[in-house]
Amino acid sequence: MINESLNYLRNDEDWVKTVLIGGILSLLSVLIVPTILVAGYLVRVIRRTMHGIEEPPEFDDWGDMAVDGLKAMVIAFIYGFIPSLIAGVLVGGSIFAIVAGNAARSGGLSIAGGAGVLLGLLVSFVLGLVAAYIIPAAIANFAETDQFGKAFSVGDLRSVLVSGKYFTAWVSGFAVIFVAGLVASILNAIPALGFIAGGFLGFYAAVAAYYIIGNAWGELHDVEMQEGEGQPDEQAAV
Q1: Which of 76, 84, 143, 198 is the most exposed place for a label (fewest CB within 10 A)?
Q2: Is the pTM of this model over 0.85?
């Protein structure tokens, strides 16, 4: 599956154009809007792959893509908010305890505050990892149904999240993104090259990862190819 995911974009004869657009948008991610557009493209990837369509989507219908991307980012933000909130409370409270301990010259309080900071960071890391595990499935459920609320449907997500197939797909996607990040960090030895390569590699890896998630979701939910998708000539012949 990893090998297929890495070749996914190349199923389109205009794949170089797609990578160029995606890479440039990724490099401009600080402007927010490009990030929304990339997120919208990834929603298209997961929506098509879950229906068994091997040809990657194009960068077109920018308005619709922006709407999908904005919804995907809101989904990710909501799932990531709780870990961030807990981290802020635990770490912030512990730092306050350290400051108070130093002010009172109480070593015990400072030690407790330091332990609280470490605990807060550990808890936030674990919860962040859980959120990162849930988010692709949540976006997939939104992509399949085109209903924003479905991203938070516990009943729909539970069976997928505990399945070995989804776990394997998530780990595979994470591995692709991790390796791409590692390569980009190595290329950072040449600052300009590392920055530019990071944008293009990051986009390519994200598409590959969501290709894997989309395929797993389609198999788990037994998603059928929608009418008018895929290869219309062959479908008409059938």
Answers
A1: 84
A2: no
